[in-house]
Amino acid sequence: MNAIMQPGFWIFILTMSGIYGIFGLGLQVQYGVGGILNFGHVGMMALSSYTMAILVISHGINFWIAAATGVGVAALGGAFLGLTTLRLRGDYFAIVSIAFSEIVRYVIFNSDNITGGAQGSLAIPAIGEGYPSYTNAWDSIMNHMRDFLQPIFGDIVNREFVMALTIWSTLAVLLLIVSRIERTSWARVLRATREDDEVPAALGKNVFRFRLQAVIIGSILGGIAGIYWALESTLLSADDFLTIVTFYGWMILILGGATKVKGLPFAAIFFGFLYGGTRFFTFWPFSMVDSAQRAYIRIMIIGVVLIILMMKRPQGIFGKRQEMVLE
Amino acid sequence: MNNLILEVNDVAISFGGVRAVNGATLNVAVDSVTSVIGPNGAGKTTLFNLISGAIKPDSGTILFEGMEIQNLLPHKIADRGIIRTFQGAKVIKRLSVLENLMLGGQDNPGDSLLNFFNPKARNAYEARTRDRAMELLQQIGIERFAHEYAGILSGGQRKLLDLARALMANPIMLLLDEPFAGVNPTLVEKLLEVLQDLRTKHHLTFLLIEHDLETVMNISDRVIVMAEGRVIADGAPNSIYQNQAVIDAYLGTRKATS
C-alpha cells in the first residue's frame, strides 16, 4: 500500500499514461476518424525509437536530428503499410498491419550488427570507446529543466517529474493540433470514408489519399510516443514492441471514446494506473501470487475492462453513442 | 454531333457468367433529360456504375465531353462534372445532415492537409459551403434536421439528401438512380420543379433511371429502354410507347392487364 502514497509512484503513472496517450492518439486519428483498424501501431514505435538510438549510438548524430529522423522513419513505415495494403478491406488491413509490426520486431531482433539483436540497445555498436547510450543529450536537458524548476516547485521536482511534465506538455499540444485537424473538412471526408467508399468517391474525393494521410499522421504520433518510450526506459529491446502494446493504445482509445479526443487523456491516466499501478499491488489478495504472476494479472485486468466496456458502453466514457451504433 | 455530352459505345461487362451490360450503345445530348427504363436486371444501375467509374468495362468506350473516361477512377470522373446519386439513396449515417451536404463541396481547400496552416481560406470556404447547404436544405424542406445525424432520416428524406448532396458538387451532368421511388407525390412535384429550375438556370444535363412511366414521359426529352444488358429502343417518349420491342420487354404486362 505504501507505494501508492509516494509521489514517485504517481509521477511514474503519469509518464506512462502520457506516452501511451500520445500512442493512442495516433490510433484515434486512424480509427476514431477514419475507421482504419490498425493493429500494428507498435511497429511505428519500434521504428522511431530504434532509428533514433542507432543514429545516436552508432553514428554520433545530434539527438534532435536523430529523434526527428526516427519519427520520419515511422511516418515512412506508415506510408509503406498504407500504400501496400490500404486498398484491402478493413478487416484484412487489420491482419496485415499485425504482420507489419511483427516483421519490424523480428527484423530488429535478428539484425545483431545494427540493432544489437536479442541483447537490445546495449549491443548497438557504439562509435569509438563510447558507452552505447542515447540519452545523454536528453538527460542534460532534463537536468537543466530540473534545476530551473526546483526553486519554483520545491523538492518534488526531480528528473522523473520533469520527464512527466515534458511528456504531458507534448500530449497537450498534440491533442490541440489533432482536435483542430478533426474540425477541418479533411476530417469530414475521412469520417465519411469510415462508413462508405462510394459516396465520397462519387463526390470527387480520393478516398485512398485521405486514408493514407490518416495512417501517416497516426504513425507520426506513434513515432513520437516511441521516442519518449525510448527516453523513459533508457534501454531498448525488441521485446518492448510486442503486439500487446498496440492493444494498450486500443484500450485507451476505446475507454476514452474513439470518436472524440477529449476523453483520451483521462483514459490514458486510467490505463497508466492499471499498467503501472498493478506492479504495486502487493497487498491482499494480490500478495498471494508472486510478482511475475502479478504482471499477468495486469494484462488480465486490461482484457476484462475492455470486454465490460464493449458490452456496457461501446462509445467509451466520453464518446457519443449514436456515432458508434447508428445504422 | 457536337451537342453530345456523353457517348457510350458498345460497352460490355460481365460478372462471373452473367453479362450485365452486353454491348450497350447510347448517347446523351447537352442540356437534356434522358431517362433509362427497363425491367429489373436490365443493367441500368450497372450502366450508371460504368459511367461513374465505380466499375470498369470489359470492352467499349465511354466519352464525356469528347474525352474517354472509362478508365478513370470514380473521383476523377466526379471532378469532371459527372455526379451520381445511388439507388435507395446513400447517406453517411454518422455525419449530420448538414455535414453530408458539405461533403459535396468541390475543390475545398480544407480537404488538403497543407491548408491546415491556412485557416482563412478554409474558413471562408466552409462558411460559403454552409450557407449554400442550408439554402438547399430549405429548398428540399429538411432544414430542421440540419444538425441531426443523417441516420435518423426516413427513406424519402435520404433520397432528398442524396440529391441535394449531388447538387452541392456543382455537376455538369447528373446521374440519378431512381430519384423518385418512395418519395411522396407532392414532394416528387417539388423535386421536379427543382430539377426543371436547375436545367433552365444552370444548363444541367440529366440521365436518370426511373420506373414510374408517367413521370418519365412527363419530364424526359428522350427515353432509352434497356433489356438484358442491351439498348432495345431509344427515342422520344411518344415513340417509345408504340415500339413493339418495348411493349414485349417492359410494357407488355401492363397492356395485358388493361
CATH arch. level architecture of the largest domain in chain B: 3-Layer(aba) Sandwich
**Which H/E pattern describes the elements of chain A?**
HHHHHHHHHHHHHHH
How big a fraction of the residues of chain B is strand?
A: 15-25%
Biggest sheet layout of chain B: 6 strands, mixed
Q: Count of helical segments of chain B?
A: 9
CATH topology of chain A: ABC transporter involved in vitamin B12 uptake, BtuC
Q: Would you kindly provide a brief summary of this structure?
A:
With 327 residues, chain A is mainly α. Chain A has helices at residues 2-5, 7-33, 42-59, 63-85, 90-110, 112-115, 136-153, 159-181, 185-195, 198-202, 207-233, 243-256, 264-277, 291-312, 321-325.
Please tell me about this protein's structure.
The complex is a heterodimer of chains A (327) and B (258). Chain A is 72% helix and 0% strand. By secondary structure, chain A is an all-alpha fold. Chain A contains 15 helices and no strands. The longest helix of chain A is centred in the first third of the chain and has 27 residues, at 7-33. In chain A, helix 3 (42-59) runs antiparallel to helix 4, helix 3 runs parallel beside helix 5 (90-110) and helix 3 crosses helix 11 (207-233). The radius of gyration of chain A is 20 Å and the shape is globular. The model of chain A has no long low-confidence stretch (mean pLDDT 89). By secondary structure, chain B is of the alpha/beta class. Chain B folds into 2 domains: 4-90 and 173-257, P-loop containing nucleotide triphosphate hydrolases (Rossmann fold, 3-Layer(aba) Sandwich); 92-152, no CATH class. Chain B has 9 helices and 10 strands. Chain B has helices spanning 44-51, 74-80, 97-102, 119-140, 155-168, 185-202, 213-219, 237-242, 244-257; strands spanning 4-15, 18-29, 33-37, 59-64, 67-68, 82-84, 173-177, 205-209, 222-227, 230-235. A 6-stranded mixed β-sheet of chain B has the order 6-7-8-3-9-10, with helices on both faces. In chain B, strands 2-1-4-5 form a 4-stranded antiparallel β-sheet, with helices on one face. Chain A binds chain B through residues 180-181, 184-186, 188-189, 191-192, 194-196, 198-207, 213, 217, 322-323, 326-327, and chain B through 52, 54, 73-75, 78-79, 83-84, 86, 90-95, 99, 102-106, 108, 110-113, 115-116, 122, 125-126, 149, 151-152, 165-166, 168-169.
